[in-house]
Amino acid sequence: MESERTSAYGNNTNVDFTQSTDDDPLIDGPLVSQDALESVIKREFQKLPTHWAVSVISFLHVVYVVLCIVITVFCWISDEHTHECTAALQGIDSKTVILLGKVALWVMVFIYDRFVQHHHSAVRRRGYLDFYRLTRGIKSLPLLIHSAGNALILIVIAPSSLLDANVKNLSVYLLLAIICLELLLTVICLLRYAVHVVKFNSKKPHPDVTEEERSHGCSSEGHTETGFRDGSSLEDVVEKQADLIDYLKQHNSVLSRRILALTAQQIRG
What we know:
mainly alpha; 2 domains
């Protein structure tokens, strides 16, 4: 009795397996060529177009600082060019012009920061996780520096009458010092960021997953090291794994849709 059940179960299993194989449309359908799959997997390298934004924001910042120095020296401290300054500024107070220019510059830096963040998010989605983490802190520093500079300017401008009562034009000198220090720190951060971007664009690397596979394939060791290394922390390991999983999910989803589209084209052809 038990042998009959076993044989019947085996027959049913074979039948189910045959039916599932016959019902699978991918097995009887045309196979996707190897060249088509490689063209889908290989993506053309996209350069990071943020280096020109660094040049623009640096130029605007230098122009603003030069104008602030000129206006402060000729229109704020000195009284010899009062009529010329009033005519050039169309009756607007020189202090108001400097503050309005600072607000406009901060808006430009904010737009620059959003532009850079957008492109770095795209770089992260394309699998360049190490470069994203390398520039994650430095790319946001210009906006932080300008925001801190705005706060310091408000601290100086608010009690300007008290400061100037003790030392003549003390608030003006402090204002110029803050603006020049802000320019120095911002230019240093922008130059360091631009160097990273230029190296990244010139190197034209593959996504991190592909680079790791190549490095492990060229190495003599046949296994890869996973887990903690010297100097690694739990947060870094978890963050890297989460970024890698997110990239692989997106890559597999795009790759599956393209393979299905190629298969459909071959079926129709």
